[in-house]
Amino acid sequence: MRNPVFNLSPDSFDGLSETNSLPPRGMGKVCVYSTIPDPTCGITLGMEVPSSVESISVILATEYWGIFLLRDRKFFPAIKVISSETLMQSREDTANKVLQDTGAVLIPSFNDGHFISFAIVNFHTQVRIKPFAQQTPVLTSDTLDSIAGRKLYFKCECFQKGGAFKFRGACNAIFSLDDDQATKGVVTHSSGNHAAALSLAAKLRGIPAYIVIPKDAPKCKVANVKRYGGHVIFSEPSMQSREDTANKVLQDTGAVLIPSSNDGRIISGQGTISLEFLEQASEIDTLIVPISGGGMISGVALAAKAINPAIHILAAEPMGANDAFQSKSNGRITKLSEVNTIADGLRAFLGDLTWPIVRDLVDDVIVVDDKEIIQAMKLCYEVLKIAVEPSGAIGLAAVLSDGFLKNPVYSECNHIGIVLSGGNVDLGVLWNSFDK
Ligand SMILES: Cc1ncc(COP(=O)(O)O)c(C=O)c1O
């Protein structure tokens, strides 16, 4: 039997929450078709539907993936997920077939100006990682507010398990593997925080984690990986050597590759930061997030814009690794031939999944230099009394930078949420920074 179809043209879709554009009551059960590459990643394109709606039948062909928005958690009826191959062609073909079979209406997501009606909020993910991840505290400081001239809220992911937000994504990725996939373990290449997070999550699941680490990674990060039981394999610092070494481990072990950013499960996990943050401080009108591979800001932006479409999402990036800034300016992914910054967690580049999200949902990239990052680390230590690593302190550096303070565009950003993304700093680096 065909599911009832509500003809949602893109124009009417934005008005879904207005009663005159709703389908009549009693049309049947809700049925959402979503072509997503990986149904286990726990994010399914969806929309907020007021409780008066009893039925809707929609096919969602997503450029990326999607979700069922569960702001009030009660709207969660039968979702039919139809998997396709990851390739866009396969997704489109699958969507077209479902369209023909059901007579449903195709609603493309993103890039059509309507993504704000849609939501990517990781309800499944939040549930999946809840038993393991910390709900990190939000700190405020009158002193820092008066320096910034705004109200600041600090989400302390430096208190997350493993010392950085990365545990959220790693945990989601590992606990969404089925038993067969999981037994052979997981592999990644990472300069640190993702590596430690993956090791810890793997340990909690009781499976091996093979971690390829560049030789020049900070000692405390290598020590973290070892502490959590990860098997460390060193590579040369270059990305090519990291990838080659990881591929060799993959072949030797049959483990599952879990990338540090460019992965739906990771993005979904990092999105839980927004879910918590905006519940802890709902007055936030702007979020500032460090950017490297873009996994964190992608998840944060997708979830935050679903909860509050008007929220500003700003990326903070070091001058010596400003590929996101350049990519946004050029309108295409731009990689750098070399990077040079104290923020060792921010030296990676955007990927094919994270770039379109950054392109479409991140309002601006604020670039700061290493001196500003060091000053922000200092303020975190002296005022907030917490140790934050350079990559983690960059959001505060951005808010205090001239580029932000003197730009009239940001004058309406008055309640600013800053993600202090990690605290894995070699003490030597922290102390030395105090002399600079
Ligand atoms: C502390 C810290 N902050 C921010 C980032 C950037 O995250 P993403 O690569 O998801 O953009 C990283 C990445 O390693 C990190 O370790």
UniProtKB/TrEMBL annotation:
Alphabetized Pfam families for the sequence: PALP (PF00291)
Top-level taxon of the source organism: Eukaryota
Record keywords: Magnesium, Pyridoxal phosphate
Organism of origin: Solanum tuberosum (Potato)
Residues in Tryptophan synthase beta chain-like PALP domain copies: 131-400
KW Metal-binding (keyword) present: no
Tagged with keyword Magnesium: yes
Cofactor: pyridoxal 5'-phosphate; Mn(2+); Ca(2+); Mg(2+)
Protein name: Tryptophan synthase beta chain-like PALP domain-containing protein
